[in-house]
Amino acid sequence: MAMNAQGRPTRAEVTQAAAAQRAPTTFTGNRALQIEESLIFEKDAFDKTGVDLPEPKGTSRLGAHARDGAIGLPGLSEPETMRHFVRLSQKNYAIDMGPFPLGSCTMKHNPRLNEKMARLPGFADIHPLQPQSTVQGALALIHELAEWLIALTGMPAVAMSPKAGAHGELCGMMAIKAALEARGEAQTRKRVLAPESAHGTNPATAAQCGFRVDSIPADRSGRVDLAALKEKLGPDVAAIMVTNPNTCGLFERDVMAIAEAVHEAGGYFYCDGANFNAIAGKVRPGDLGVDAMHINLHKTFSTPHGGGGPGSGPVVLSEALAPFAPVPYVVKENGGYHLVETRRAAEAEGEGHAGGRLTAFHGQMGMFVRALSYMLSHGLDGIRQAAEDAVLNANYVLARLKTEMTPAFEGYCMHEALFDDRFMKGTGVETIDFAKAMIDEGYHPMTTYFPLVVRGAMLIEPTESESRQELDLFCDALLSIARRAKAGDPALKSAPHHAPRRRLDETAAARAPILRWTAPDRE
């Protein structure tokens, strides 16, 4: 399937018919309970303050550093300040408001139990520079979480310190590079194979590690073309980077054959584990021939994802790569726990060619607590059911929507359903118009224009969190938009109509963001 090179304008094409359908403006700019809110700097109260403070007595200790001009901040009262930030918060879509159907992101419900555990003083208030004797509980938790990850993946070792998925990729590829150096082949094996549908971080990570990336085409089913892969294998191949399930929401049926072919050629198999939530408890990547795989704790094990929530990307490693895991790591010994924090200490522990330090400290403690809380509350059977329900929900969405929309590939999907824009051909309506219309229906748009191998892609991941009733309402809304598109409804070209802001020029905003407020000229 050809790569999607479609250009897409982000400004709305407002027709007379669409303009006529807009609601009349109000005096305040408010739209019922959706309150219009200006920037806090535009409150125009720089000569006021919300608190009364006495004049300082005596000599200031600030010396030459004392402020000699206005502070430049608005002086709002407490009610004004609270209302401002509450109004802003009401403009955010959140997983606690409704489904978040972003494909390739796994925006699942975050159980409040996990949040409660992460806020326990023994976890929330510790500091990474505390003596290890005072944080034995935290070290025990990291050790137990590592054991869960090893058991779920069938891999002999795990590096816990990577802070996100891309950071985990870097860790895995650095381990592969170190293993090649130990074999004396670092200068000859400089090529990394990556499917066309790979996450963008895959080729970027390989390039960051000094490898040359060679793309592998997909076959008609949306999976890695095994014949094309074998043609590209040679003595200069260092590794292959495959996402499984892949970014088209499909399981790579030839994954074991891929691993066998790459290993026979002397390379390593890196698996992008971003979609591990579709197979957790069902399939162990170690049994498929994987050498390294990062796991997004913030996807598979229900920790915050997006909106500033930190991620965590532990990396499981095969027996061949385990000696090159980075420090630090936790060791259980004599009834207690301690961190091996340097390469020399790791070699003293008998770890051979231990990797160096990848990050300043030991990982994302809050994410570790949430992930282990999720695992313990679900158990292995619950984790398996979560994966099964995620796949079931995605296939339910696929089955319901394919009556009006066009699936990108035939057959069942895994945890996400992928559609292309063929059903809108000749209507003048594009994927971006469809996505903006979803906002009017009260839904965050699905992932659009990704993966790039599908023209006008619409990637939907319902996760296991959604009930059938919620999915039915969601599907009915999308089916109604699809019918409107086929009928040539001009209002779709200027959607959304009911949001606090109309369609924005997102490209210009990304390329030329205004990051500093400037007071208007009052003359």
Distance between the termini: 59 Å
Number of strands: 13
- The poorly predicted ranges are 16-20
Relative strand content:
5-15%
- Class of the largest domain, according to the CATH hierarchy? Alpha Beta
CATH fold assignment of the largest domain: Aspartate Aminotransferase, domain 2
Query: What oligomeric state do the depicted chains represent?
Result: single chain
Q: CATH homologous superfamily name of the largest domain?
A: Type I PLP-dependent aspartate aminotransferase-like (Major domain)
- Give the CATH architecture of the largest domain: 3-Layer(aba) Sandwich
Evaluate the radius of gyration.
26 Å
- How many domain modules? 2
Total of DSSP H or I helical runs spanning 4+ residues: 15
Quick one: overall form?
Answer: globular
> What is the topology, as strand order, of the major beta sheet?
1-7-6-5-4-2-3
Q: What is the helix fraction of residues, given as a range?
A: 25-40%
Average residue-wise pLDDT? 89
The helix-strand sequence is: HHHHHEHEHEHEHEEHEEEHHEEHEEHH
The structure class reads alpha/beta
Query: Quick one: biggest sheet?
Result: 7 strands, mixed
Give a nutshell description of this structure.
The protein is α/β, with parallel strands linked by helices and 523 residues long.
Would you mind describing this structure in some detail?
GO terms for molecular function: glycine binding; glycine dehydrogenase (decarboxylating) activity; pyridoxal phosphate binding. This protein is α/β, with parallel strands linked by helices. The protein has two domains: 113-373, 3-Layer(aba) Sandwich (Aspartate Aminotransferase, domain 2), CATH 3.40.640; 380-509, Aspartate Aminotransferase, domain 1, CATH 3.90.1150. The protein is built from 15 helices and 13 strands. The chain has helices at residues 16-20, 78-89, 112-118, 121-124, 136-153, 165-182, 201-208, 226-232, 255-264, 297-300, 343-348, 365-401, 431-440, 468-486, 506-511, and strands at 157-159, 191-195, 212-216, 237-243, 268-273, 292-295, 315-317, 329-333, 336-340, 406-407, 417-420, 447-448, 458-460. The strands form three sheets. Strands 1-7-6-5-4-2-3 form a seven-stranded mixed sheet, sandwiched between helices. A four-stranded antiparallel sheet has the order 10-11-13-12. Strands 8-9 form a two-stranded antiparallel sheet. α7 links the parallel β2 and β3. The longest helix is centred in the last third of the chain and has 37 residues, at 365-401. 41% of the residues are buried.
